[in-house]
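To whoever is on call:

I kicked off a structure prediction for a single chain this morning and the downstream step that reads the tokens threw a length-mismatch warning. I double-checked the sequence; it's 64 residues and nothing unusual in it as far as I can see. Pasting both halves so you can look.
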Amino acid sequence: MLRTDRVSPETANHDACRMEHTISEESFQKIQELVKKIKKKIHQRNKWKNNGNAIKSVVRSFVR
């Protein structure tokens, strides 16, 4: 999560370790669930964009 915000890898790893050992297990699990949902949403959006471009190119080939 920190790496996507352009935090250096060293700082991200250090902070993630501190967060993991400081917050409750419940909070840690909720953060993991949130990250998974965000990644899934990004994947779906990218998949749709790629399919959209493929569909556009097929339609263009028929129109020409």
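Update from on-call: the warning came from a stale cache, not from the record. Cleared it. Sanity check on the structure: Helices lie at 9-22, 25-63.
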